[in-house]
Amino acid sequence: MTIGDLTYSFDISGLPAQCNTAGPYFQGSFALDASGAAVQAGGPDVVVQLNFGIPPEDWESQGLSPGSVGVEDRTTGEYWVASADIGPADGTVGVQTINIDGDHATGTAAFLEINGFYAGDEPQIVEGTYDITCGTG
Fold first, then answer.
1. CB pairs under 8 A, 24+ apart, for 101-105?
2. Confidence at 89, pLDDT banded by 50, 70, 90
3. What are the boundaries of each domain within the chain?
């Protein structure tokens, strides 16, 4: 995943329960500890965590929400989220393109750093991409 100049890479092998591709959303959470090893999302050893809920490309015709992708980086204190439900109401933040093929999702998004935004800072919005493959165990 890229967010502006930042790149996050997660090796999620062996963690199939944290990813659901059965639908309607391609969704899950993956996390890394300080050594870069995969750990249980939301656990005490998490340093970086990826959360995603990506709808099918025709989400509007199915009455679904536009989805979200986010990375929380506890080493920097930043939490980057692409979600139309968070941030400025002008449509500048959110998942922009969606391509899902089985257990693989790719696309583009506009990310907002929400910790600063909620603290009253000027919105920091950057373009990025996501490329997520859910393991089969």
1. 102/21, 103/19, 103/21, 103/133, 103/134, 103/135, 103/136, 104/131, 104/132, 104/133, 104/134, 105/26, 105/52, 105/54, 105/130, 105/131, 105/132
2. confident
3. 2-133
